[in-house]
Amino acid sequence: MEKFTTHTGRAVPLCRSNVDTDQIIPAHWLKKVTRSGFEDGLFEAWRKDESFILNRPERRGATVLVAGPEFGTGSSREHAVWALQNYGFHAVISSRFADIFRGNSLKNGLLTVVLPQETVERLWSLTESDPSAEITVDLEKREVRAEGVTASFELDDNVRWRLLNGLDDISITLQNEADIAAFEATRPAFKPRTLPVS
Amino acid sequence: MGRTLAEKVWDDHVVRRVEGEPDLLFIDLHLLHEVTSPQAFDGLRLAGRKVRRTDLTIATEDHNTPTLDIDKPIADPVSRVQLETLRRNAAEFGVRIHSLGDVEQGVVHVVGPQLGLTQPGTTVVCGDSHTSTHGAFGALAFGIGTSQVEHVLATQTLPLAPFRTMAITVEGELPEGVTAKDLILAVIARIGTGGGQGYVLEYRGSAIRSLSMEARMTVCNMSIEAGARAGMIAPDETTFAYLKGRPHAPQGEDWDAAVEYWRTLVTDEDAVFDHEVFIDASELTPFVTWGTNPGQGAPLGSNVPHPEDFADPQERVAAENALRYMGLEAGTPLREVAVDAVFVGSCTNGRIEDLRAAAAVLEGRKVADRVRMLVVPGSVRVALQAVEEGLDKVFTAAGAEWRHAGCSMCLGMNPDQLAPGERCASTSNRNFEGRQGKGGRTHLVSPQVAAATAVLGRLASPSDLSDRFADVAVEA
Ligand code: SF4
Question: What are the names of the required cofactors (chain B) (predicted)?
Answer without folding.
Answer: [4Fe-4S] cluster
